[in-house]
Design a protein that fits this description.
Elements lengths: L3 E3 L6 E8 L10 E6 H16 L2 H10 L14 E4 L2 E10 L5 E6 L2 E5 L2 E5 L5 H14 L7 H6 L11 E2 L10 H16 L7 H11 L10 E5 L15 E9 L2 E8 L3 E8 L11 E6 L4 E6 H9 L1
Antiparallel strand pairs: 1-2, 2-3, 4-5, 4-9, 5-6, 7-8, 10-13, 11-12, 11-14, 12-13, 14-15
Helix pairs in contact: 1-5, 5-6
């Protein structure tokens, strides 16, 4: 049955769809149903993608076996250079379950004056033969047989090949996706009344904007650097966590993704507008595929015992 609700982003009464607060591609199991299909799709393409496809998240997804919507694991270290010959490109292949499969030499043809240097992976002899015969035909020469070509080929065997991979990481674009998780977690705990809160409106408008920075938000988003970073001592590398905590007249919300990224914002400066607020804790275990929720003090006591 279709549900018509007020979308927490566009604030219009529309048919809603399932929204994973922690992205589905990152193993998120916490689902809400107050985001319309249009906002869900648009924010997935413009906001969530910068977190889900961040290089560090792709590495985490690969090691944890978290496949994308097309059923494939990301392979962020799939292409690199052969250390003994930097001109040779290697392709690092993984199995469907993310385990190392093979290193494959990417074909290369270099021409210097009238000489050709042709490099192929030994597992593809037919491709080598076809390439050489195309070059011979193009230069008005007779084709050679497979045996003739392979018998004159030079084979190199390396028992321990080393592939150098160069990776660059965007350290800004993913931050809005973290703030989006904070926004949705706050609504999960405080309810739709938060939609009219001045800070809630400011956070929402920033998420919907094309701006990379915004003034007026109180908090920080970044990488986890120590156990003291944003309650990181309550998190682990196989889960996502969220915390709601009162701080004077403010309410703070923290989220932690695989203990790699974290964010913490003051989500309201009017604690009295919300009834019966208590410090909350939630963890989304991507291995057990479970959501566990408690008070913050109960969780601190639990890990202390």
């Amino acid at each position: 049955m279709k549900q018509i609700k007020k979308c927490i982003f566009c604030h219009e009464m529309k048919e809603t769809s399932e929204e994973h607060i922690f992205p589905d591609s990152l193993g998120g199991n916490l689902i809400i149903d107050n985001v319309c299909k249009g906002c869900n799709n648009r924010l997935g393409e413009k906001v969530d993608t910068h977190l889900v496809n961040h290089g560090l998240m792709q590495l985490a997804r690969q090691t944890k076996g978290l496949k994308g919507k097309k059923g494939r694991l990301p392979n962020p270290i799939g292409v690199g250079r052969y250390r003994d010959d930097p001109e040779t490109t290697l392709h690092y292949k993984i199995s469907d379950d993310g385990k190392p499969n093979s290193l494959y030499v990417v074909p290369r043809v270099n021409k210097e004056e009238h000489k050709y240097e042709i490099v192929f992976d030994a597992s593809k002899p037919d491709e080598l033969v076809n390439t050489i015969n195309k070059i011979l035909t193009r230069n008005g020469q007779e084709k050679k047989t497979k045996d003739e070509i392979l018998s004159s080929a030079k084979y190199i065997k390396d028992e321990n090949p080393i592939m150098d991979v160069e990776m660059t990481f965007d350290m800004n674009s993913y931050k809005k996706a973290i703030i989006k998780i904070i926004y949705e977690m706050t609504i999960y705990w405080l309810g739709e009344k938060f939609l009219d809160d001045p800070m809630g409106l400011r956070i929402r408008n920033y998420i919907l904007s094309n701006d990379s920075e915004v003034e007026g938000l109180i908090g920080k988003v970044g990488m986890v650097k120590s156990k003291d970073t944003g309650f990181a001592f309550l998190a682990n590398s196989d889960s996502h966590t969220a915390i709601l905590k009162k701080d004077g007249n403010k309410v703070l919300c923290y989220v932690n993704i695989f203990n790699i990224f974290w964010g913490g914002l003051a989500v309201t400066e009017n604690v009295n507008l919300f009834e019966s607020i208590e410090d909350r804790f939630l963890t989304n275990d991507i291995v057990k595929k479970e959501i566990r929720e408690s008070t913050l003090i109960e969780e601190i006591i639990r890990i202390s015992n």
